[in-house]
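> forwarded from #structure-qc
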C-alpha cells in the first residue's frame, strides 16, 4: 500500500507539476556543463531536478497569494534554501537505501506503473502510447522515470519504517489537554471616556515631545528607496483615442445577446423515472405531506443538483408554457424534459431586458477606447526601449513621449499610485543603484521605467509631521491612567468579594473562557492575564483609550465529556505524534548526511538562479 501511494504521487509530480516547471527552462535541461548542484555521498542532486522543484515552489506560492513572486522575493523568503534542503534529504535517503540494498522488484514496479490512471486509456487499461507520450512531454526517458519511481518507493519504505507506530505518552497528552481545556469563569466591565468623572489632562508641548521620543519606533519611517519613474497608462491616452460609429455598432451587434435578453425564469427541476412517480410526488406537495426540498432530500440530492439557473422558453422546450405561466414558488408538472418526466419549481421571474444602442453607447465607447489605448501603449514599447538604449534618461522619456514623470519614496508598505501595481513593487524590490532602466509592463496594459536615486535610511518623522497621531496616543494613554486611579477603590471592593453592582460598576459581560477563547473587542493580552489570576482576583487592562476590569470568579477542570475537547485531544495526539515522527525522521536524515558527506556546487546553483532573473 505504501509503495502504491508513493509511486502514484511521484508520477503525478513528474507528469503534472514538473511539466509546469519545465516552462521556463526548455524541455530537456539547462544549458551548461554542470549536471548536478551537489551530492550526498554518491547520490547526485540533478541540476534539472533542482530547477524544476524551484519553479514548482515559486508557482505554488504565486497561486496561493494570487500575484507574481520575483526571484529576489523568493530568495528573501528562503524558498531556494527550502527546496535545496528537501532535495538534499531525498538524496540522503537514496544513499541510505542504496547502502542497505533496499529496493522494489521489477514485478512490483511494473504493477505500479500499469495501474497509474494517468497512463490508462479510455478502456481503463494501461496504454503504452500514453505512457511514452507523457514521459516525452516531461522530458524523461522510460529508464529515468522508472529509476525515479523505484527510488521514491524505496525512500518511502525507509521513512515509513522510521516513523511507524509513533505515539505520544498519555502523561504528555494529559498535560496538553489540561492546559488547553481548563475553563475560567470571568466577569468584566469596560470603562471609556464617558465614565471618567474628572477632566482629561491637556498635553503641553513638553509632554508631546517626550512621548514622541519615548515611542520613536512608532513614528520612524522604514528604509526607503527614492525612485524616479516615467509612466504611461492607457487612461492617459483616452482623450486622444477616437472610436468611429461603425466600430461601436459592430461591438453592439457582437454583444446583442448581452444587451437584449429574453424573458427568463430561475428554475429547479426534479426528474422521475416515469410520469406516475412524478404525479405521486406532486400530489404529496399539493396535500402538504412534503415540500420540494423534502422530495429532493429523499432522492439523496442537494438543491444545487436540481438548479437549472436562469432559463429561456427555448431552453425549456415543451415545458416552457407551464413554467412561464406559473407564479414564483409554484411547483408544476409533470412536464417533459431531457432527463424524463419532471417537476419544476419557479424561484424567480426575470423580465426581458432590452438595452438600445444609444443606452449602451457610453459603455461601448469607454471599452473600445480603453482597448485601443492599451494597444497604443503597447505600440510604444519598442520606441521607448530604443530611447533608453540610446542613452535617454527617465526625464528624457517624459519630455520626448507621452509618459509622465514621477517620484516616490518606496518601501514594501507603500501601495499608493503606481505602487498599487504588483509589477512595480516587484521591480522596486529588486532595484539597485546602477541598474539599467528598462521598460516594464503593468497589469492594466501600462508601461514604466525607473531609476534608483538613493536609499534613505530609517528616520524618525518630525513631531510636527505626526503631531495629530502623537496627541491622540498620549491622550489615550492618559485616559487609561486616570481611569485606573478612579477605579482603584472599586477594584479593592471586588477583590474583597463585593459584586460589580456593590462596587458601583456595570457588569458588561461574563463568560466561561479557555486559553483558546476569543473575546471580540477585548485586549489581545486579556486571555493570558485571566489565566495568570487566582480566583477572586482582578486584572485591570488598558487598551486603546478603554479600561477592562476583569475578575476571575471560578476555575473548572476540563470536562472529559466535552465533544469539542475530545476532538481537540484527537488532533493534539495526531499533531504531537506527527511532530515526534518528523523529529525522528530529521535525526536519521542528519545522521545519513553526516556519514555520507554533502558537497554543493555553488556555481551550478548560481547558473540555475540566473535563469529565474
Amino acid at each position: 500500500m505504501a509503495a502504491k501511494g508513493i509511486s502514484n504521487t511521484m508520477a503525478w509530480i513528474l507528469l503534472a507539476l514538473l511539466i509546469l516547471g519545465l516552462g521556463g527552462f526548455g524541455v530537456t535541461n539547462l544549458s551548461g556543463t554542470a549536471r548536478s548542484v551537489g551530492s550526498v555521498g554518491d547520490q547526485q542532486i540533478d541540476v534539472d531536478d533542482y530547477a524544476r522543484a524551484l519553479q514548482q515552489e515559486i508557482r505554488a506560492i504565486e497561486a496561493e497569494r494570487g500575484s507574481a513572486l520575483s526571484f529576489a522575493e523568493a530568495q528573501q523568503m528562503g524558498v531556494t534554501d527550502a527546496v535545496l534542503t528537501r532535495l538534499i534529504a531525498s538524496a540522503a535517503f537514496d544513499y541510505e537505501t542504496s547502502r542497505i540494498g533496499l529496493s522494489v522488484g521489477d514485478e512490483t514496479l511494473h504493477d505500479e506503473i500499469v495501474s497509474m490512471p494517468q497512463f490508462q486509456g479510455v478502456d481503463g487499461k494501461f496504454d503504452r502510447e500514453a505512457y511514452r507520450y507523457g514521459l516525452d512531454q516531461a522530458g524523461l526517458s522510460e529508464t529515468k522515470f522508472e529509476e525515479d519511481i523505484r527510488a521514491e518507493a524505496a525512500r518511502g519504505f525507509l521513512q515509513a519504517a522510521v516513523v511507524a507506530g509513533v505515539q505520544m505518552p498519555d502523561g504528555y497528552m494529559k498535560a496538553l489537554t489540561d492546559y488547553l481545556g481548563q475553563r475560567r469563569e470571568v466577569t468584566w466591565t469596560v470603562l471609556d471616556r464617558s465614565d471618567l468623572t474628572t477632566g482629561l489632562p491637556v498635553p503641553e508641548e513638553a509632554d508631546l515631545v517626550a512621548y514622541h521620543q519615548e515611542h520613536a519606533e512608532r513614528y520612524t519611517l522604514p528604509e526607503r528607496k527614492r525612485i524616479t519613474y516615467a509612466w504611461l497608462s492607457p487612461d492617459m491616452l483616452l482623450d486622444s483615442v477616437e472610436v468611429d460609429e461603425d466600430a461601436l455598432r459592430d461591438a453592439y451587434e457582437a454583444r446583442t445577446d448581452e444587451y437584449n435578453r429574453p424573458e427568463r425564469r430561475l428554475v429547479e427541476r426534479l426528474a422521475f423515472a416515469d410520469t406516475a412517480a412524478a404525479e405521486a410526488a406532486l400530489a404529496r406537495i399539493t396535500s402538504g405531506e412534503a415540500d420540494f426540498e423534502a422530495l429532493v432530500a429523499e432522492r439523496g440530492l442537494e438543491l444545487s443538483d436540481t438548479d437549472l439557473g436562469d432559463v429561456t422558453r427555448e431552453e425549456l422546450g415543451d415545458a416552457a408554457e407551464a413554467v412561464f405561466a406559473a407564479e414564483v414558488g409554484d411547483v408544476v408538472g409533470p412536464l417533459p424534459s431531457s432527463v424524463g418526466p419532471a417537476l419544476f419549481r419557479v424561484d424567480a421571474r426575470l423580465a426581458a431586458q432590452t438595452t438600445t444602442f444609444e443606452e449602451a453607447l457610453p459603455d461601448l465607447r469607454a471599452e473600445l477606447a480603453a482597448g485601443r489605448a492599451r494597444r497604443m501603449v503597447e505600440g510604444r514599447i519598442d520606441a521607448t526601449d530604443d530611447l533608453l538604449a540610446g542613452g535617454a534618461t527617465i526625464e528624457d522619456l517624459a519630455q520626448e513621449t507621452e509618459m509622465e514623470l514621477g517620484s516616490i519614496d518606496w518601501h514594501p508598505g507603500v501601495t499608493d499610485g503606481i505602487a498599487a501595481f504588483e509589477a512595480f513593487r516587484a521591480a522596486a524590490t529588486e532595484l539597485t543603484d546602477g541598474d539599467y532602466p528598462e521598460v516594464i509592463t503593468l497589469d492594466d496594459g501600462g508601461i514604466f521605467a525607473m531609476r534608483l536615486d538613493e536609499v534613505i535610511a530609517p528616520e524618525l518623522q518630525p513631531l510636527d509631521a505626526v503631531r495629530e497621531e502623537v496627541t491622540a496616543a498620549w491622550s489615550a494613554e492618559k485616559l487609561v491612567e486616570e481611569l485606573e486611579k478612579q477605579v482603584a477603590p472599586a477594584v479593592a471592593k471586588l477583590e474583597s468579594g463585593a459584586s460589580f453592582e456593590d462596587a458601583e460598576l456595570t457588569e458588561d459581560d461574563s463568560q466561561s473562557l479557555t486559553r483558546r477563547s476569543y473575546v471580540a473587542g477585548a485586549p489581545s493580552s486579556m486571555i493570558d492575564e485571566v489565566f495568570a489570576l487566582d480566583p477572586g482576583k482582578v486584572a485591570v487592562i488598558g487598551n486603546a483609550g478603554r479600561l477592562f476590569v476583569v475578575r476571575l470568579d471560578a476555575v473548572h477542570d476540563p470536562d472529559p465529556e466535552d465533544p469539542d475537547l475530545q476532538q481537540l485531544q484527537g488532533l493534539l495526539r495526531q499533531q504531537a505524534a506527527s511532530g515526534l515522527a518528523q523529529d525522528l525522521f530529521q535525526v536519521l536524515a542528519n545522521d545519513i548526511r553526516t556519514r555520507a558527506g554533502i558537497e554543493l556546487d555553488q556555481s551550478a546553483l548560481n547558473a540555475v538562479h540566473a535563469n529565474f532573473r
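QC bot note: The CA atoms of residues 120 and 126 lie 4 Å apart. The chain has four domains: 2-164+594-610, 183-216+467-556, 224-241+360-457, 263-351.
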